[in-house]
Specification:
single chain, 2 domains, mainly alpha, about 70% helix, about 475 residues, 19 helices, disordered C terminus
Length: about 475
């Protein structure tokens, strides 16, 4: 393990120094999606060292990016609070990987902002194109596994699954490794043994492609969006199905609200969107009897888990139990629930158990920062298409936040989604700066770079379209 870490870390730094930003970003995404979560190489990958170097070697963006500093500070604060739990964590590798994940989202978000503002949307398109085969494979295998269980069973028991899942696939047949993909009405694709994690990651990826399609006016991302939507709808995650319906509708309402002429009307529309989202979920539950019955079956165990978690927090409210402490507590017979060991199924309670009250606070602050960044991005000047793209970007983070309140997922989602979250953060942070009015010097520069007519009233940004001033042929 130590030798792998020592070897992989300088490799990541060298790649950050030598590779073009978009290619380095794409390579990080490929390894982040394909490496098993428990693989030790995820640690240097998630440390974000290469991403930090890739950003530092380039000039900083010309314009100060509002909101980037609070996001980075919050993520680094979260990483620091996890470091404080190292000594009390029975599962040290898990705590180390969690700290690296928080630090990595900070550095890769900075890299994403730099990538977008310096290289344009074309570079983001290259990154997404590089990751498209994996996203499609995940969606299509989910559909195949859902309808042909024999293929699913053969895959999980094969040596091929070990490449992507470690030993999790073979462990499905054991009591300790059993997971919800063994159900005939559920499927998680080739990258997951848990349907909830699979649907959440696919939802984030789906919204990333949607946001890019709206910003770039490209149609090819639909080739990824449609299979992903089908996989989420048919994969068997009840939360995934609800969010697949509610969050796009909420994004449309939010984008519409931001175009209101006055603040009271805008706030009224936003509140209407929130109410519509809540009512939509309630109506869905009330009219889908089978869905509701299945939800009740999974709700009761969760209520028991949450009760036991709260009891454990009261006993260790400041430092928590450390990473692996919840499992250890269960093994010692201090969790009074009549079923096998399970995660808490709530990111807030799990964060408090793992890293104490400071880490739980970091999680809550992260939610407020993301909501603020989303509202600011959607409120910035731009067309409805632009605003909807910003709303989709924020909705991807909300997908992880909402999903994790009742499932065994963290607030930062899962390793395969990390690069997509960084790109979405880049969209929201860099977007408002890309729609500022063009200065005369920039307009002159744009004229020198293209023979096409330049239209006044907006911005020229290195070869891609933004609201107002734009060029063709670049």
């Amino acid at each position: 393990m130590t030798l792998l870490l020592l070897a992989a870390t300088p490799v990541a730094i060298v790649c950050g120094l030598l590779l073009p930003r978009w290619l380095f970003f794409g390579v990080m995404g490929i390894f982040g999606m394909l490496l098993p979560r428990a693989n030790v190489l995820q640690i240097p990958l998630h440390s974000g060292l290469g991403g930090l170097v890739a950003w530092m070697r380039a000039r900083r963006p010309d314009h100060k990016v509002r909101g980037l500093a609070p996001l980075v500070i919050t993520l680094l604060f979260g990483a620091a609070t996890i470091v404080l739990s190292f000594a009390s964590s029975p599962d040290f590798p898990a705590s180390l990987q969690a700290a690296c994940s928080w630090a990595a989202l900070a550095s890769t978000s900075v890299l994403a902002v730099n990538l977008i503002m310096k290289d344009g949307l074309g570079a983001v398109g290259k990154v997404l194109a590089l990751l498209t085969p994996i996203a499609l494979a995940q969606a299509l295998t989910t559909l195949v596994f859902r309808f042909i269980p024999t293929i699913e069973s053969a895959y999980y028991s094969s040596s091929i699954s070990k490449i992507f899942l470690g030993g999790a696939g073979q462990a499905l047949s054991t009591d300790t490794g059993r997971n919800n993909v063994v159900s005939l009405v559920r499927a998680g694709g080739f990258l997951f043994v848990n349907v909830n994690r699979a649907s959440m990651v696919m939802g984030i990826i789906l919204l990333a492609y949607c946001a890019y399609a709206l910003l770039s006016s490209k149609k090819w991302p639909l080739l990824v969006v449609i299979p992903l939507a089908a996989a989420i709808a048919l994969g068997g995650s009840k939360t995934g199905i609800a969010l697949l319906v509610v969050l796009p509708l909420f994004s449309i309402f939010l984008a519409t609200a931001s175009r209101a002429a006055n603040a009271p009307a805008r706030m009224g529309l936003v509140l209407s969107a929130l109410a519509a989202a809540v009512v939509g979920v309630q109506v869905f539950f009330a009219t889908a009897d089978d869905f509701l019955a299945a939800s009740e079956e999974t709700l009761q165990p969760r209520l028991q888990l949450w009760g036991e978690a709260i009891r454990a927090i009261r006993e260790n409210w400041f430092l928590g139990l450390g990473y692996g402490g919840w499992t250890q507590r269960w093994e010692q017979g201090n969790v009074h629930i009549p079923f096998s060991i399970r995660p808490v199924h709530d990111w807030f309670l799990q964060a408090w158990l793992d890293g104490g009250i400071l880490f739980a606070a970091a999680n809550v602050i992260f939610v407020f920062v993301i909501v603020t960044i989303t509202l600011r991005a959607v409120s910035s000047p731009g067309s409805f298409q632009y605003k909807l793209a910003m709303a989709f970007a924020g909705a991807a983070f909300l997908w992880a936040i909402i999903h994790g309140l009742g499932d065994n997922t963290s607030i930062l989602s899962d390793p395969p989604a990390l690069v997509f979250l960084a790109l979405l953060a880049g969209f929201m942070l860099a977007g408002p700066h890309l729609t500022r009015p063009a200065t005369p010097d920039e307009a002159t520069t744009a004229s020198a770079l293209t023979s096409d007519k330049i239209y006044a009233g907006g911005t020229y940004v290195r070869g891609f379209y933004v609201k107002g001033l734009y060029t063709k042929g670049r």
